[in-house]
Amino acid sequence: MEQQDHSYKDKKVISIGIVSELTGLSLRQIRYYEERHLISPQRTSRGTRKYSFSDVERLMDIANKREDGVQTNEILKEMRKKEMRSNPDYRKKMLEGQLNAQFHFRNKK
To answer: Which backbone phi and psi does 71 adopt, to 5 degrees?
Structure first.
């Protein structure tokens, strides 16, 4: 069931007009966040943007952070850090680094 919920939220089916209504953001703001690589809609064969419910949630989070004065470049850095932290290889390298620092190991290759 969890996996179905995930795919449901990530399916790109919502038009930019509906996203604007749901988020309270203007079309211009949504396009700007796309230009800044904070959001990545799919494009139809005619070039129409399509968004997912996950995109809507991300846009709401971005809007809240912008209201708090956070710059878009800082939001992007934070998003990239979160993506890296969720990567299993990243976690493994961080743990190896911590062990190496604690026990003064050197990785010999």
So the answer is: -75, 155
Q: Give the rounded distance of the alpha carbon of 2 from its chain centre.
A: 19
Segment 13-61, tens digit of pLDDT: 999 999 999 999 999 999 999 999 999 999 989 989 999 999 999 999 9
The alpha carbon dihedral of 34, 35, 40, 46 has a sign of positive
Cβ-contact 77, 85 below 8 angstroms = no
Tell me if 20 sits within 8 A of 27, measured CB to CB.
yes
Q: Where are the domains of the chain?
A: 1-70, 71-109
Give the three-class secondary structure for 77: helix
Whole-structure pTM value: 0.71
Q: Which residues fall within 8 angstroms of residue 38, CB to CB, at 6 or more apart?
A: 58, 62, 72, 75, 76, 79
Q: In terms of CATH architecture, what is 1-70?
A: Orthogonal Bundle (1.10)
